[in-house]
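#struct-pred

JT: dropping the chains for the assembly here, can someone run the whole complex?
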Amino acid sequence: MTSKPSPLINNRDSIVAVATAPGRGGVGIVRLSGGDLSVFVNGILGEGRALKPRLATYSQFMGGAGEVLDEGVVVSFTGPNSFTGETVLELQGHGGAVVMDRLVQRCIELGARLAMPGEFSERAFLNDKMDLAQAEAIADLIDAASYQAARSAVKSMQGEFSLLVNGLVETMIQLRIYVEAAIDFPEEEIDFLADEKLHTSLHDLESELRDILQRAEQGSLLRDGMTLVLAGKPNAGKSSLLNALAGSEAAIVTSVAGTTRDVLREKITLDGLPLNIVDTAGLRDTQDEIEQEGVRRAWDEIEKADLILFVADITETDEPDLKAIWPEYFTRYPDARQPITLVLNKIDRIGLAPGVVEGREATFALSAKEKLGFAELTAYLQQAAGYQGQSEGIFSARLRHLDALSKALELVCVGIRQLERAGAGELLAEDLRQAQNHLSEITGQFTSDDLLGRIFSSFCIGK
Ligand SMILES: Nc1nc2c(ncn2[C@@H]2O[C@H](COP(=O)(O)OP(=O)(O)OP(=O)(O)O)[C@@H](O)[C@H]2O)c(=O)[nH]1
Ligand SMILES: [Mg+2]
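RK: done, full complex below.
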């Protein structure tokens, strides 16, 4: 772990990539950043061509032998007033794959290097244009699959999450200064560690951390959603349930037991909550080689689920205990803590009311075929995911942020106990130091090169 490296404005090579999405579009943008960009201005627009920063200039884009590759608009940004903090040149041409490729090749001929994934964002981070959480939020905004996810990503991108984290770090620094001073001057008359104000501040810090962690959990849920696996015996109605949730005939449904053999995935959003629904082969012993493989894959998916819906045909099951209905699961995973809901399907055949079944643990009644109980199911799944359905005050967050926040929270709690039970100021000071480092990882003030590499390499080229 190291502190963030120092800024490197414009002292590196020139990188190039297509910044717009691949495919066909009215406009496509090739972006260059870093190094001496006059080479590209001279080589592509024409010798001695003068550009005014941030003003669009119309030009032809020239190839090596004087051939015109395209024509369009050029915008230049002088560092540090650019996305990366370096001098940036944007060639806005026509958005075709070949045109864009030829422009990029021309830049490479003139000495640029193809940008690595996320390299523009990485340079922006290293040049202090944004912190790590903000860089991640830009990627999350681009990838947002719902309105709510986009809103929360914008908040993080604008620094709302970072501001809260920096506030916590500042509080920790103040507390550390206080505690360390109290340890360094034990001969003082007053026992500073016993001061009521210190205890109140520590407990305030703890509850603030808890609150931010909870909001970050919502943000992470909006970003990544939850994986819901539909499991059960053949013919229980898993594929019918998938189709009903997805609102399309994604899976084949027949009355033949063993219809589904492959794993099928559908992404849906329930009032803003993204769900990855996975339909699996019906679980049974079989001699059919293909079906055996399907069953094996079903178990793989079950293992990875955030929530399992075990679908059963209500006309065949009156056993209330899931352990008796699905003993195989409990034999395989005696310690599994995955939440499982028993879904009693085909209620249309017996006329039972849809919804949560009263007096039973995690049991839900519905009809996949007649679409009975789906409004209730939406509410049920949102509750099971811990989704609160509002995006006010929610900022986008990733698992690594949740991890850092939980570790910091745990250390603060341990520190408080050390102080209150044993008067151990030294231990509290050390816990606060470590907690602070965890929080600083979120914004990238304190990170390993390895972590940076992992984060930025997950971005696309051109970002
Ligand atoms: N009456 C009634 N029939 C249903 C309902 N849901 C599914 N079925 C019927 O049950 C049969 C099996 O449905 P599927 O959705 O293919 O069941 P499955 O669990 O995916 O089965 P496998 O893929 O073989 O494991 C089909 O004939 C469906 O039409 C329901 O809610 N009510
Ligand atoms: Mg099926």
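JT: nice. The longest helix spans residues 196-224. The pocket of magnesium ion (ligand 2) is lined by residues 238-239, 251, 259-260 (CB under 6 Å).
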